[in-house]
Structure formats: structure tokens, C-alpha cells
């Protein structure tokens, strides 16, 4: 039996050695596949899979599809972020233009009020010169009314609105108003 054991022993060792070599080759192939996949994934992290065409053939089809979808989503996110920034800038510019327009409107309003005030002042000066040229005995009544209206205008500017002043003053007849207009 020893002879049989001796004959069997090298064959079993040989078989186990062959089995181990086959398993080693199988594991080596699996390791190579994992290394290739790792390289492809590293490349995909740095850029789209299309930038590494030689690696795309090494990746399984499912992974290629997922990476392509991921690249599309990343591009869309980038586009949306750019769009948000553009809209923020547009909103800021619109707010700035609105403020400038409001300031311009306010300045124009002030300018119109100032011009109106100056025109009223010039008209009053013209009326005063005309009244001073008339003799006092002839137009004493007109002079008195002019002084009254001038005092009212000055009070209007300092007391309050025109409605408040009208409510405080006695009613006037239309004939008196036509004289001064």
C-alpha cells in the first residue's frame, strides 16, 4: 500500500497544485478587472467618461449608463447654478434701476415744486409793482386785498395744507377771486 500511496501522493499534489494555479489565475483576472474599474471610476470622477474612451470599453455597460446619467445630472446642476447667478444679477440690476428711477422722479418733483414756487414769487412781485404804481386813494381796496392774499399764501406755506387753510378762512365770493387771477 505504500507504493500506491506513493504513486497517488504526487498526483494529488500535482492536482492540488494545478487547482491552486487555476484559482490564482482566476483571482488575478478578477484583480485586473477591479484595477481597470478603479482606473475608470477615478477617470470618471475627474471628468466625463467620454474623456477617457479607452477606459469606457473596460467598464460594464450598466456602469457606463449610470456614469452617463450622472454626467448629465452634473451638467444640468451646473447650468442651473449659472442660471441662478444670472437671475440674481438681473434682480440686483433691476432693483438698482428702480431706485435710480425713484430718485429721478423725486428730483423732478422737487424741481417742479421749486419752479412753481419761483413762478408764484415772480407773479406776486409783478402784482405788487402794479399795485404800487397805482395811487393808494384809487385802489386802496385792491391793495388791501392783495396784502390779505399775500399774508394767506405765506401762512399756507407754513401752517398746513390748502384744505386746512380754506377751512380756517372765511368764504370768498367769486367776484373777489376773479380780480386776483
TrEMBL record:
Residues 63-90 form a coiled coil. Residues 1-20 have a biased composition (Basic and acidic residues). Pfam families: Lzipper-MIP1. Residues 1-22 are annotated as: Disordered. The keyword Coiled coil applies. Keywords: Coiled coil. Residues 13-94 form the Ternary complex factor MIP1 leucine-zipper domain. PANTHER family: EXPRESSED PROTEIN, OS01G0147800 PROTEIN. This is Ternary complex factor MIP1 leucine-zipper domain-containing protein. The lineage of its organism: Eukaryota, Viridiplantae, Streptophyta, Embryophyta, Tracheophyta.
Amino acid at each position: 500500500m505504500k507504493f500506491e500511496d506513493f504513486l497517488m501522493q504526487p498526483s494529488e499534489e500535482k492536482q492540488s497544485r494545478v487547482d491552486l494555479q487555476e484559482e490564482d489565475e482566476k483571482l488575478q483576472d478578477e484583480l485586473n478587472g477591479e484595477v481597470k474599474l478603479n482606473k475608470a471610476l477615478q477617470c470618471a470622477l475627474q471628468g466625463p467618461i467620454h474623456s477617457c474612451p479607452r477606459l469606457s470599453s473596460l467598464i460594464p455597460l450598466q456602469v457606463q449608463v449610470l456614469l452617463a446619467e450622472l454626467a448629465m445630472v452634473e451638467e444640468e446642476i451646473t447650468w442651473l447654478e449659472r442660471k441662478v447667478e444670472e437671475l440674481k444679477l438681473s434682480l440686483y440690476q433691476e432693483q438698482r434701476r428702480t431706485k435710480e428711477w425713484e430718485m429721478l422722479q423725486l428730483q423732478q418733483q422737487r424741481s417742479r415744486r421749486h419752479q412753481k414756487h419761483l413762478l408764484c414769487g415772480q407773479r406776486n412781485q409783478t402784482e405788487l409793482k402794479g399795485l404800487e404804481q397805482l395811487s393808494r386813494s384809487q385802489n386802496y381796496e385792491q391793495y388791501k386785498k392783495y396784502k390779505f392774499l399775500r399774508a394767506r399764501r405765506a401762512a399756507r406755506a407754513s401752517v398746513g395744507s390748502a384744505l386746512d387753510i380754506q377751512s380756517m378762512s372765511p368764504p370768498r365770493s367769486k367776484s373777489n377771486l376773479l380780480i386776483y387771477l
